[in-house]
Write a structure and sequence with these properties.
Layout (H helix, E strand, L loop, with lengths): L1 E3 L2 H13 L4 E6 L5 H13 L2 E6 L19 H10 L4 E3 L3 H4 L17 H5 L3 H16 L3 E5 L3 H13 L5 E5 L19 H6 L2 H14 L4 H13 L5 E9 L13 E8 L4 E8 L4
Parallel strand pairs: 1-4, 2-3, 2-5, 3-4, 5-6
Antiparallel strand pairs: 7-8, 8-9
Helix pairs in contact: 6-7, 9-10
This protein binds pantoate.
């Protein structure tokens, strides 16, 4: 595995690989890699000739009162994980490389962001698509790999790729979970012991909710049931519980279409998200 820190070197390197007809798989990350990222790197290495993983904690996607400073970082550990799981090139740019002082353009997302994290974290997805556009230009991937845990991000990136005609195939991989059901996330490290014991209840509530939906409960019954389960928890508080069509992310009044049941929950130093997507129930 080689580590590249500048966009110039990265662009030169990728140009050469593309000229040789090699397919490029791209795993964009903000580091502090976990088994969710590992599943993306492994899938990319099965499907592509070269795997590029990027590590960049993107300041543009954090709001002023969010956890940019607390976001966990460990580049030594990340290098090892990336190397052992199929990454050929680790792209590790600085803030100055990604946001040169003389550049002042950013993208704005106008669809699929009025709800869920888009509503709760204004500007977050503008930051995500801006950095991904830069990364797609630098790396020129054929396939880009994302986890379903960030389902709204997947829906927004799907729209970005279609809106800007990127020749990139979006691959969504299943959420990787701890044995107790908690979705793997870099932010889990910021949970205290008591919160760690409660956090798996998010997935438990989602599983119960999706079973109820499949058995004929209405959208409002399922939502209320989720709220009741989560309101009863000892620590933290609900940020949202929503049921929406997927990937359009529009309000639904039945389960007659593919539907996401999504939750965000705030603990003291970590805001966790999770979801289940269910196929149309007729
Ligand atoms: O999912 C993430 O880790 C980030 O949002 C991404 C896609 C790397 C963009 O900064």
């Amino acid at each position: 595995m080689i580590i590249i820190e500048t966009r110039k070197r990265m662009q030169e390197y990728m140009r050469e690989k593309k000229q040789n007809g090699l397919t490029i798989g791209f795993v964009p990350t903000m580091g502090f890699l976990h088994e969710g990222h590992v599943s993306l790197m492994r899938r990319a290495s099965q499907e592509c000739d070269i795997v590029v993983t990027s590590i960049f904690v993107n300041p543009l996607q954090f709001g002023p009162s969010e956890d940019l400073d607390r976001y966990p970082r460990d580049f030594e550990r990340d290098q090892k994980i990336a190397r052992e799981n199929g990454t050929d090139i680790l792209f590790y740019p600085s803030n100055e490389e990604m946001y040169p002082n003389d550049a002042g353009t950013k993208l704005v997302v106008t669809k699929r962001t009025e709800v869920l994290c888009g509503e709760k974290r204004p500007g977050h997805f503008d930051g995500v698509v801006t950095v991904l556009t830069k990364l797609f230009h630098i790396i020129q991937p054929d396939r880009a790999y994302f986890g379903q845990k960030d389902a709204q991000q997947v829906a927004v990136v799907d729209d970005l790729i279609r809106s800007y005609f990127f020749p990139v195939k979006l691959i969504t991989c299943p959420t990787v979970r701890e044995e107790d059901g908690l979705a793997k996330s870099s932010r889990n490290v910021n949970l205290n012991e008591k919160e760690k014991a409660i956090a798996p209840k998010l997935f438990e509530a989602l599983t119960i909710a999706s079973d109820k939906a499949k058995k004929g409960a209405t959208v409002s019954e399922v939502r209320q049931d989720m709220l009741d389960q989560m309101n009863g928890l000892e620590y933290g508080k609900i940020d949202y519980v929503e049921l929406l069509s997927y990937p359009e992310l529009e309000i639904v009044d039945s389960f007659g279409q593919k539907t996401i049941i999504a939750v965000a929950y705030r603990f003291e130093n970590a805001r966790l998200i999770d979801n289940i997507i269910i196929e149309a129930v007729r």
